[in-house]
Amino acid sequence: MLHDEHTEIQAIQTAHRLRLIDAWDIQPGEKILEIGSSQGDMLAALAYAVGPTGHVTGVDIASPDYGSPYTIGQAIKTLTDSDYGDRLTVFFERDLTKGSDFLAGEHFTTNRAHQHTRECRE
């Protein structure tokens, strides 16, 4: 796991992400577009929520070699190599303000950009 030295922080952040998913009423089988996937923490939570019949597509403007101490490419590879890997597709270096042709033919039941909702804050 990439977050070993910060497990308490990671647990708090994951709990927050799961509360967001609950507030958004994400259901098994949904097809979700997540904009701003970064190192994939929300992708992992969404992949868990949609279950084996759902799918999550992540889009990030950054290149896979961006980030420290781990790059987003390393983090996403860890995630796609996991049990959730078959539920995920991730696109790097994609600027949606310049077009979304790479998503042609896709249909998403839910689109999520990173945001905070008041009811999920502690």
UniProtKB/TrEMBL annotation:
GO terms for molecular function: methyltransferase activity. One of its GO terms (biological process) is methylation. Keywords: Methyltransferase, Transferase. It comes from Blattamonas nauphoetae. It comes from the Eukaryota. The keyword GTP-binding does not apply. This is Methyltransferase ustM. Its EC number is 2.1.1.-.
